[in-house]
Amino acid sequence: MYDLSNISIDGLKGVGRVKKRALNNLGISTVADILYHFPRKYEDRSNLKKIHELLPGSVETIKGTIVTSEITRPKPRFNILKVVIYDGGSYLTVNWFNQGDYLKNILTRDKEVIVTGKVRRNFGRLEMSAYDYEIIDGRGENLNCGGIIPFYPSTGGLNQRFLRSLIKYCLDNYLNSLPEVLPNELIQPMNIPPLQWCVLKMHFPDTMEEQEKARMYLAYREFAFYQLGILTRKKSIMKNGIIINNNMLVQEYIRSLPFKLTAAQIRVWKDISKDLKSTKPMTRLLQGDVGSGKTVIAVMSLIASCDSGFQGVLMAPTEILARQHYLDLKETLGRLNLNIALLTGSLAQLEKKRILELISSGEIDIVIGTHAIIQDNVMFKRLGLIVIDEQHRFGVNQRLRLQQKADSPNVLVMSATPIPRTLALTLYGDLDISLLDEKPLGRGNVITKYVSEQNRKKLYDFVKKQIQQGKQAYVICPIIDESEKLDIENAVKMEKVLKEVFTGYSVSLVHGRMTPQDKEEIMGQFRAGNLNILISTTVVEVGINVPNANVMIIEGVERFGLSQLHQLRGRISRSKNEAYCFLLGDIKGQEAKYRTKAMCETNDGFKIAEMDLKLRGPGEMFGTRQHGIPEFKVADLITDGKILEASMRHVRAFIEEKQYIKAELFGRHTKFMNIDFSKIYG
Questions:
Q1: Which of 215, 239, 675, 677 stands 20 to 30 A from 401 (CA)?
Q2: For the chain, first and last CA: distance in Å?
Q3: Is residue 134 part of a domain?
């Protein structure tokens, strides 16, 4: 048995320096890469037509014998190879354009061929413009015509005939050395065909039903292999957990709230309380739409940790959000005699040193901060609970680094970005999932409308009326340039325009390149109600809580993703008042129309997430900030949900039974197709 991931494509049949460079551009450098380079589509060329059955305008496949072959040159640097084919009853002229000099010695008289091409009528007679051909030479290898024909992702310098030939060569010579990647305990109960069969039938199936069967079982392998990796990692770090079982301060906190917990919050808190009292450390994802009350649950969890003698930490993705959490909780936790500290990268060195000393000595009960919390110099005395807000903004490794600051701490990760179930199970397969699917009582509706450029003045008049009634408004400018420079220029222009339109009102701008102090000063003015209109790039996308702001204008709607639009809209659903979200921009494109229509028709974040997943795919849903989303080769998170859930059930049961699995599973198989555990999980 060879290790195909170590066999280079150098020296393979037909692979020279130029072809090697082109293959490398496709991510192909080994024989294993070639075998896992699957077709992007298939054409059924198995239905051979008789020449007399052909119809103009159709793409058909015929079989016959070459009678004559000649080249014509209608103009310089252009030639036509005209081949007459006889199928035993009729004749047909087949044309190859600008390939005559190469094919004239291949397509010669008396050779039997299969040809696929487009049929057309020329001066009253049927002809065919050839797409592909196959010489019938007795070997029975119809790689290009006469069967289900694969078409591969390609690049300059690689044509489909070469790729089919190269892949067939590797299948013939190396397929039997392709090792199974799953243990027998997962293969046998499912009655799964061998991996070699699945790979072969993905490339050259006899029927499309056969290809789909192969794809389904490869998808199962991908999902199961991925889950084995993350659950193995989870089991390796799962020791006896920190037991948190005091709830007196939590009950005092609940009594102090000016509202009643929703049924969903009570249900989720029961799940978390059970986890915290267990001898196994909690690893739970708390998912809920904007405004569903996740922060209250997080605070209850942190208080419970402190009440049991441990410290808690809450990590947020931005300094604005971390500071807001700190300001919102400082007074509340102070009444419970709990000490809270804010730790961010912008703190002065002396202040940071003081806070680090208080954390390590245990005098700080709860730390709220940004990525700064992950740094090596942050040491806790008795860390019992980690809360990560907006988990999709962080990578898997960042979560693990924070977990390593204590001996098996409890972990609660939260996401206000609704994630479709299949994507959540993939991203967070090592976490139990709780769902807040109910909004607190008394929250007002958000009305979303598209506004054309002609009605901009009417929109501004409406905003003025809302401000006169004591309300505030956001104006969101789109991301245009990754460097943010152009974004800021456009936002600055918008500020000048709106200051002229809203003369007598207070208008200010906040963007990503401002210093944390400047951003916080402006956000503080907006929170206090001293600003009527806040112009912003997407730094206000998550977590900002200004209940008095009930109007949002989103400029350049076509430049935002659907989930991002929904997150932005969530900033104005924070009170009992009716709110208004207005979408402006060019929606001529189909995707822009689809997104705008979806936003106007539903406020359900989970419906929007499903639509966004179908529209953009998992790799784009969260932009470049998301780490850890595997790029599955054949598995589809949109359509393969049942396969994913089946694989998870089997893998979880398998992991539970095994005492020692690391060496058994990953001695050789650290990589399968695109999934590489060494890169994703370290």
A1: 675
A2: 27
A3: yes
